[in-house]
Amino acid sequence: MLQGxxxxxxxxxxxxxxxxxxLFPHGGYAYCASRFPRPGSQFGAYQENHFELVDVAxxxxxxxxxxxxxxxxxxxxxxxxxxxxxxxxxPRADGYYSVFxxxxxxxxxxxxxxxxxxxxxxxxxEESAKDTATIFEVGDIVEIIDASIIKRKHYENGVxxxxxxxxxxxxxxxxxxxxxxxxxSSVLLVGEDLQAIKKVKLRTLLEAFMVNDKPKKVKxxxxxxxxxPEIVHVPxxxxxxxxxxxx
Length: 247
Hints:
The chain has 2 helices and 17 strands. The chain is mainly beta. The longest helix is centred in the middle third of the chain and has 7 residues, at 125-131. It is elongated, with a radius of gyration of 25 Å.
């Protein structure tokens, strides 16, 4: 497998000068570039003079690289913003470290860099996991515990809301109870904003159940009881009667 350092972006916004890429031959004088070591993940084809091939150093077999929660201090590319938080690994044998989304530390890396001044380590991933805020999923019921962070009318302390969207760690919540028969608009929470809420009930589950000798899905929910999730049946009627047609 070939790896090369970009020495000339050629005006492309997808390439960053000095960044290392995985290269796959494309014709006689070009490479398909990728941030990941697998065919099919390339993001474009470029002339070979855009890269300087480097020797690929192999880490010791079975070695697991430590991971850290880190903050961006000098963005390595336009993709990153100062003060954003990501997961990074310790450097490999070739001096490069991998970067992962904060909420997907075990997913595929989103980049690999050699410049150490780009990120500031905060704490090891293991220690970070102990203090990480609850992971919210669509359908979870949350309670406002610090309205001063949200600063939105009708989202006072004690109000319950439902998570209606979760996109890369940014979640939207919407108040459950209407106000003066009006549905309250949702609120977007990002990063430290998540400290304003706590999870009180997890998303509703569906379970097969026999009603009138027919299989039917009924709701269950998972509630937080003493900070531990427990499955709780949603009240349902014991009987259900089929609708009769007059025709």
